[in-house]
Amino acid sequence: MTPLKPPSASLLDKYHGDESLSLYTGRVRVNGGEAERSRASGIAASDDGALVVDLRVPAELGGQGGGTNPEQLLAAGYAACFHGALTLLARRAGVHVHDVTIEASVTFSRDPVDGLFLLSAEIRVALPGLDRMLAAELVRNTERICPYAKMFRQGIDHVVVLVADT
User: Fold this and answer.
1) Three-state secondary structure readout of the chain
2) What CATH number labels 69-166?
3) Does the domain made of 25-68 have the CATH classification 1.25.40?
4) Do residues 77 and 148 make contact, with C-beta atoms less than 8 angstroms apart?
């Protein structure tokens, strides 16, 4: 097995431009499943084939369980992104971190404002053996640069498009 190569710390260099500079786009298609359940079911697969998961309505929402769901997928993305940003910041600062654990929770709830639905998220970080003040500074700085943390804090630009039947 080939050892993983960490991303370049130059990713932390400031970008100066008038528009966002696209670095990577992940694409996933969901199809199949039971549309009448009003929740995602079926298969989610990435365009490169690296991700293929069965989507199922959680038992807590009256489904059969036995697969993953949008909240778990979002939590996985958030935890992975935060982990990567934190370790990148630590490496650039010359701080050795080991056994870093990031736990993300995404909760699907009823919204008291409009009576419909909303999501909330929580991130929990464990940095064993690191001075508490240094760990807190590292987590604060990670929250500032992690795109998922920014998305949860500030929102995200998004577009919804109805495509023609093919």
Assistant:
1) CCCCCCCCHHHHCCCCCCCCCCCCCCCEEEECCCHHHCCCCEEEEECCCCCEEEECCCHHHCCCCCCECHHHHHHHHHHHHHHHHHHHHHHHHCCCCCCCEEEEEEEEEECCCCCCEEEEEEEEEECCCCCHHHHHHHHHHHHHHCHHHHHHHHCCCCCCCCCCCC
2) 3.30.300.20
3) no
4) yes
pTM of this structure: 0.87
pLDDT tens profile 34-57: 655 556 678 999 999 999 999 998
Give ranges for CATH 2.20.25 in the chain: 25-68
